[in-house]
Amino acid sequence: MNPIEILFEYWPRLLDGALMTLKLTFLGALIAGLVSPGLALIRVQAAPMAQAPLRLYVSFIRGTPILAQLFLIFYGSGQFRPALEEWGLWTFFRDPFNCALLAFALNSTAYQTEILRGGIMSVPQREIEAAKAIGMSRSKILRRVVFPHAYRIAWPALGNEVILLMKASALASVVTVFDVMGRTRQIFSRTFDFSVYLWAALIYLCITAAFVLLWRQAERRLSRHIHAPGTPRASAQPFKESQA
Amino acid sequence: MFELFAYGDAGWGDEILRGLAITVQLAIVTLPVGLFLGFLAAFASLSGLRPLRALGFGYTTIMRGLPEILTLFVVYNGAGLLLNKGLRWWNPDAPPSDFSPFAAGVIALGMVFGAFAGEVLRGAFQSLDKGQVEAGRAIGMTDRQIFRRIQLPQLWRFALPGLGNLWINMLKDTALVSVIALDDLMRMTKVAVGVTKQPFTFYLLACLIYWAMCVLSEVVLAQMERRANRGIRRAV
Prior knowledge:
heterodimer, A: mainly alpha, MetI-like fold, flat, B: mainly alpha, about 75% helix
């Protein structure tokens, strides 16, 4: 079969795989994105002793292959089957999708926490002092000053992390989740036609390219007060007015 | 519980160590291949020729955007198909032969490493002081001499942190070759799990071994960075 015929015959499967890849990546990044701000704050503010378990967790995740983490959760949970059954958690761990999602979320949480920690630490001290000076409460400072600026600083790095997660999600195929990679291996084992791998590569590249464009659009929106069209530097405007 | 990890027939210590040896071998053999490809990619993207620049850009962009496991399968299955085609052309009755998983691992991981290293090295080249190259030219050094005596020694200093990260990533990515049946640490762990039915214990052990290797790499790399920067005065 030629490459076009392969695509005509198997496109529903590949599309199905692409949706699964997107689902895994999106949910994994989202869960990590919800947990990481709190953890990043702990990494910035808490006492060193309180940070110790978090540092250990981040170091472990960064120092081990994500495939090993996935196996540790998916196969490793089998060792505790009686206990997990007792707690009603076995149905969760029996499903490869859940295990893959849990592994990716845990993995991405560690990376996103570190990225966000860097972002929070790069927020200029003066901004926080100014917020304190006008009487903002601690939580209000975090909500209105620290996090908006931290996210703006961390945004490109967070985008890279999501792309890495998308690439890592291909590992789910090893535990029989049918994402793009899983479908591709399935089709290859049936047809022995090499071109299906090239289609898979194209799908991954398209997802990455689309994501990069979207992420840049969002970045522009996050910093629209800095690069507003027409004005040379919007952030300098209020300063000028107060001097006049 | 420790008899599980004993060395010899009773435990799995020797099998896992043998797997670890394969993992380390794979990483060490891949490193020069990846560095070589990285230099090629960096030269291509910095070259004055447009097609070469496009080639360098295409290689680094595409390889960095693909999942490592896809690259591995493309190399393993693709090279296998080519090999068999070649064999059949040579001798129509030849039995189908498998491409060596070790070679496939080296090529695939080397290609991935090369794509990322290309970007690191390009950045390092661009952060070199241009005045020094001009000075070299002014005293009549050839391009080769400038590269060997001025650029290369300093390139190391700029590229080392990035290359160090890539080394650690590659070390972790070696776990993927277990999927194409190379008997590395990950696969030996799987074999041990299959017999002992203690998946958590053994996968945790594998994780701890990888972790130890990464932490050790970080320590050595920090040492190397300190050494590479020994002649540099820090502003702070």
